[in-house]
Design goal:
The chain is α+β, with helices and mostly antiparallel strands. 35% of the residues lie in helices and 27% in strands.
Length: 410
């Protein structure tokens, strides 16, 4: 009896992990991994600022799914079968120990993404995988049993079972559609916001933690997040912004990344508490310049920018502030309005919202409900997480389940 012929298309995190899981589950199977570029695991190498945020120290499936704007419901059962604890154990068994940082993100103790890439490549060779690098696929044809893969070179290859782990590549989406799957339109997730105000952008480098952000689109407040914010030379970034972009990916795309961002710079204080604090400063420091004596816990340059928005000058004194101006200042601190004029990139770590419809995939095996023998893993699916290692975790989980299923002899 001939060994099972299994092909994995896509040499990223999900592709490698799925191929290795398959080969380890069935050493008799012949597993081939195909990558179009000459640089496998490219996204792994640049992720986490070159450190690779492997996963997140969240070990409850119920809590874990709350970090996925799309796909959380489908992943809940999958995470009971392979979750961050299993990821940590897998890498430890393959010679790589992970560490947990204060915010829950987990990295290799070497702080080098190459450690993760080298581990996966070594595990692939140990498991007996055949790697075809720099081999673009242009089409996949379904056969009576199995699949025929057609390469750009004109060559073909047959396989019994196929895993599509092509990330957000156009070719991967094309193959999935040609095989009969429906796609949720892919749009960007995890991005920063452009703010058109040059005076605001001049504050680049200032960070505030925490702030509360409210996103308003078409006159309606649709989302909010609390956390750290970083002012950049194009607008705003930081964890609070990135989370907001992930949850708002679709609506922001539909409105061409135009909207209003309301920033509460002191979210731990109510508006009344802010007002009382400012009144206390006015009484105590009446003769002092407002620009130089802020009395609230905000960076000095940011304070000067905030008061300039309501036309307070460098010469104005606290004692001269009218009740109207004080109320305007309270509003500016607690509910300042900033116009979003587009999106920026988050480093080189792009994440896509959209992909193969989750209704068409069995999340126990990651096998297509439409095409027997066809499996999916990673970002080709309509799954995306917020920043912090959650996108890698969904890749490890879906790839592991796909690999185990493809390697089964049933």
């Amino acid at each position: 009896m001939l060994p099972l012929q299994i092909v994995v298309i896509g040499g990223g995190a999900a592709g490698f992990f799925g191929a290795i899981a398959c080969a380890e589950a069935n050493p008799q199977a012949q597993v081939t991994l195909i990558e179009a570029s000459r640089q496998p695991l490219a996204k792994v190498l640049i992720s986490g600022g070159g450190r690779c945020n492997v996963t997140h120290a969240c070990f409850s499936a119920e809590e874990l799914v709350l970090n996925y704007p799309r796909g959380g419901k489908a992943l809940r059962g999958a995470f009971t079968r392979f979750q961050p604890l299993d990821t940590v154990a897998w890498f430890a068994a393959h010679g790589v120990n992970l560490k947990t940082e204060a915010d829950g993100r987990m990295f290799p103790i070497t702080d080098r993404s190459e450690t993760i890439a080298e581990c996966l490549i070594k595990a692939a060779f140990t498991a007996g995988l055949k790697l075809n690098i720099g081999t673009p696929v242009i089409s996949v044809q379904r056969q009576n049993e199995g699949f025929e893969i057609i390469f750009k070179s004109g060559e073909t290859q047959y396989c019994d079972r196929l895993l599509l782990a092509t990330g957000s590549s156009v070719m991967g989406y094309k193959i999935a559609k040609e095989l009969g799957h429906h796609l949720e339109t892919p749009v960007p997730s995890l991005f920063t916001f452009n703010i058109a105000d040059p005076a605001f952008r001049a504050l680049a480098g200032i960070s505030v933690n925490p702030v509360n952000l409210r996103l308003s689109v078409a006159g309606k407040t649709v989302l909010q997040q609390t956390g750290p914010l970083l002012i950049t030379h194009w607008g705003v970034s930081g964890p609070a912004v990135l989370k907001l972009s992930a949850w708002g990916a679709r609506i922001l795309h539909d409105t061409r990344y135009q909207g209003k961002l309301y920033i509460n710079w002191l979210p731990n204080l109510s508006q009344e508490q802010v007002k009382q604090r400012l009144l206390g400063i006015k009484e105590e420091w009446g003769k002092k310049a407002i620009a130089l004596h802020r009395g609230v816990d905000l960076p000095h340059r940011l304070w000067q920018y905030i008061i300039s928005r309501i036309n307070i000058t460098a010469e104005d004194r606290w004692a001269e502030m009218s009740s109207k101006t004080l109320n305007q200042l309270v509003q500016e601190i607690s509910h300042g309005e900033y116009l979003i004029s587009g999106k920026g990139a988050f480093k080189e770590e792009f994440v896509t919202c959209g992909g193969v419809s989750l209704k068409e995939v069995n999340f126990k095996t990651m096998e297509s409900k439409l095409i027997p023998g066809l499996h999916f893993a990673g970002e080709i699916l309509d799954i995306d997480g917020i920043t912090g290692g959650f996108n890698f975790q969904s890749a490890w989980t879906t790839a592991y389940l796909a690999g185990q299923s493809m390697g089964s002899i049933e």
